[in-house]
């Protein structure tokens, strides 16, 4: 009996270890998502959530990897620090200047990647059947998330992308960085009058404090789509704004969350999990919590 327990604990210790670091982290759905992916694909791994403040990130990451950790996800407020921590960066991480996925390479070095933009585009195109080619896209916000989604969106050849931000110069300078990759401009919320968009993406963090960026009615074209990168147990103010403005679909970022996790899982394990059942399960749990 003691022998069996010993063997079991040895097997547990042999599991590849992954974690998500962030602050706050208690609300994170990443451990559940990765455990479902692991079951679904027959992979044996451990994935935990660890509260790590920005000032301790580098030390915590070094300890994690020196103790044999295979990969880390990093969330708010650590993505820029994770990018700086990585020895090498993928092209998409380099463009976004933020990393949400770190992996140990064969030579022990750390590769930084950013799967957020790819997660958003996969959710829009594959799960929601949204066409991006030739569309007029408005992105609200010019922070890390906005930076991370720009290149993958531009790759889909939209007609134009406008970035609107509360602090106007940030929107203008972010748009400037991506000049030459497509039609992209930056402005303030007040400069949007008389414009119409087929897709409005809320990449501000306003939803996290239950607020809505200052948006005029009439911004959304007929059959237009609203997508809030934030997600919660109840519809965000921006999702509700979409409904009030007759959006064809008004979605939140739960699908993006699962898709960016699936891309990280693929990077680490070389297997692509099925995302649709996981999104359905999380949506079902959310509906149950609302009842
Ligand atoms: P940042 O802190 O980097 O940027 C925040 C942005 O929001 C800034 O542009 C800021 O404007 C703007 N902002 C904040 N409050 C308001 C407000 N009340 N009204 C108008 N604008 C406001 O955050 P991130 O870019 O990292 O994250 C943005 C959102 O994306 C968050 O809600 C996050 O949860 C979500 N996200 C979701 C993911 C998913 O998988 N679903 C993945 C990544 C992010 P200013 O510059 O003027 O301060």
- Gyration radius (Cα, Å) is 20 Å
**Number of helical segments with 4 or more residues:** 11
- Ions, cofactors and other bound molecules: NADPH dihydro-nicotinamide-adenine-dinucleotide phosphate
The secondary-structure class comes to: alpha/beta
Number of self-contained structural domains: 2
Written as H for each helix and E for each strand, in order along the chain, the element string is HEHEHEHEHEEHEHEHEEEHEHH
Uncertain stretches? none
Overview of this structure, please?
The N and C termini lie far apart (45 Å). Helices cover 41% and strands 21% of the residues. It has 291 residues and is of the alpha/beta class. The strands form 2 sheets. It has a 6-stranded mixed sheet, with helices on both faces. Strands 9-8-7-10-11-12 form a 6-stranded parallel sheet. The longest helix has 16 residues, at 254-269. Helix 7 (144-154) links the parallel strand 7 and strand 8 (160-164).
List the helices and strands and how they pair.
Elements: H1 2-14, E1 16-22, H2 30-41, E2 45-51, H3 57-66, E3 71-74, H4 79-85, E4 88-89, H5 91-96, E5 101-104, E6 110-113, H6 116-127, E7 136-140, H7 144-154, E8 160-164, H8 168-177, E9 184-187, E10 197-202, E11 220-228, H9 237-244, E12 249-251, H10 254-269, H11 276-290
Helix pairs in contact: 2-10, 6-7, 6-10
Main features:
291 residues; binds NADPH dihydro-nicotinamide-adenine-dinucleotide phosphate; Rossmann fold; 6-stranded parallel beta sheet; globular; alpha/beta; 2 domains
